Amino acid sequence: VVTLSLLMYPVLRSLALQLHSAVTGSYVSGTHSIAFINCLNEQIAKDIARAIMDKKLAAYVNILPKSSALYFWKGELEESTEILLLVKTRTSKIGELSNYVRSIHPFEIPEIISLPIDQGNPLYLKWIEESVPRD
Q1: Which of 2, 33, 48, 134 could in theory staple to 91 by disulfide, Cβ–Cβ 3.0 to 4.6 A?
Q2: Mean pLDDT of the chain
Q3: Which of 28, 20, 31, 24 has its CA nearest to residue 128?
Q4: Radius of gyration, CA atoms only, the chain
Q5: Which of 43, 44, 132 is nearest to 96 (CA)?
Q6: What is the rounded distance in angstroms from the CA atom of residue 103 to the CA atom of residue 61?
Q7: Residue 83 pLDDT > 80, yes or no?
Q8: 90 — phi, psi (to 5°)?
Q9: 23 vs 44, which has greater pLDDT?
């Protein structure tokens, strides 16, 4: 019973959040997220962004210009330039987004991290919801 409850928690939480939002008309913190994905160059960034949009895994993707990066890779300090994608989507889509990007990204271990959106312009958040299909 405990295992089943733990497995059902994400589904039940999602349903409760949808019900709360429908009844109150208010935004529930964490319903949407922003994902950060680093890419090697602008062409790869554009290709991944378009693929994400074609799959309707996001409402909006920013492609930010080159930034310098320092990181450890296989025990060595590396330095590179990268392009950053900022992906706005439903929190419930983060797992699918992450799996899809890993399947098309050229990096061995692509950076895909996300943060929940706590607050924002209610009309913009509603637009994200309308733009990204439910699970």
Answers
A1: 33
A2: 90
A3: 31
A4: 17
A5: 132
A6: 18
A7: yes
A8: -75, 140
A9: 44
Length of the chain: 135
DSSP string, the chain: -HHHHHHHHHHHHHHHHHHHHHHH--PPTTSEEEEEEEESSHHHHHHHHHHHHHTT--SEEEEEEEEEEEEEETTEEEEEEEEEEEEEEEGGGHHHHHHHHHHH-SSSS--EEEEE-----HHHHHHHHHHS---
Number of other residues whose CB lies within 10 A of the CB of residue 104: 13
CA dist., res. 39 & res. 48, Å (int): 9
d(CA 112, CA 52): 13
The answer to whether 104 and 51 have CB atoms below 8 angstroms apart is yes
Q: Which residue has the higher pLDDT, 47 or 22?
A: 47
CA distance 40 to 43: 9
> What does pTM read for this prediction?
0.81
